[in-house]
Amino acid sequence: MRPLGSEDLKWTLAGGSATESATFYIKLDDGGLLFVQLAHSSIGLSPTVQTTAQYLSDGIHKFETLNRSSRTFKTSPDKSSVSVEGLSIQNNPKNRGLDVKASINSLNVDFKFSIVDCGFQIGEGKTFFREITATNFICHQSFPKGLVEGTVTIDGQTRQISGQGYYIHAVLGMKPHEVATKCNLITLQSGDNALSLLHFDTPNCFDNIPVTQSSLILNNKLVAVTVQNTARYVTTKTDPENGYEVPTEVHYTMDGDTVDGKPFHCEATIKLSNLLTKVDVLSELPYILRKIIQYLFTKPYVYQYYDDAEVVATIGDEKVTFDGRAFFECSFLN
């Protein structure tokens, strides 16, 4: 594990069939949720860019997504900041964070994400699949806790927001179906504590091996990062629209050592009942890209939930428990 600061964030814009994304998962202090994502993809005849924002609070739920022209996509000279029509993510090393502005249909957000302690990446940040090549990898840079202050404007009405969030910058150097058949992510912010876990199952060509990474923050300090994790669907329910076995309860385990060398074990359970969004991925893509992905995949879908979760962490002889509302996302790729 290598600690990261905002100065380590660089957009790569890898060639080939790469997809690069920046995603914020923010738990608001009023119990609501803010989700913002920018995704740049080189799959297809020309690059595509998708911007997405989702806001949930006080009985309001807005989900907006738009495809943008890649001609408006720009990076700063040092590639630490990025912008496209309707969305910008500006690196602010002076304040150790990121400044984000998004305007997507009737939903406008403007906030500062200030890093708590540090981010991390596993090793050099890249996981290679059998051969070490320029395109045969995935990369994740995670910032498991940040403080958020800003505004949300919906249909001309502005409200102040504050909260805590998780930020992940991901680069996928391969076509998605070549990497995973199913993936899921959980992030839980609970006061001075936080847990995040990313998990995906590789396809048959990579022996269905799960690839994971997780982190635990206690008292606003990154205390553990591990790749020895499990994500088990305890119960599922069949989605009649596509036949996928969608989880209704998920149990996670994490094992390893803390950053100061103590043995570490953590378990988390989330029961899923509050479905925020179900996304038919193909319906959100431009025509040419949709036709390409239809050829590669059967029927990619994404499910997003926001539900209560419980965490029990054991560090040496000490046990720590915390709970709160967690964002959970699962994706079925084929």
TrEMBL record:
Keyword Cytoplasm: yes
Entry annotated with the keyword Disulfide bond: no
UniProt keyword list: Cytoplasm
Annotated localization: Cytoplasm
GO CC field: cytoplasm
UniProt GO BP: response to oxidative stress
Entry-linked Pfam families: Svf1 (PF08622), Svf1_C (PF17187)
Residue stretches making up the Svf1-like C-terminal domain: 174-333
Family the entry assigns: Belongs to the SVF1 family.
Name of the molecule in the record: Oxidative stress survival, Svf1-like protein
Organism whose genome encodes this protein: Basidiobolus meristosporus CBS 931.73
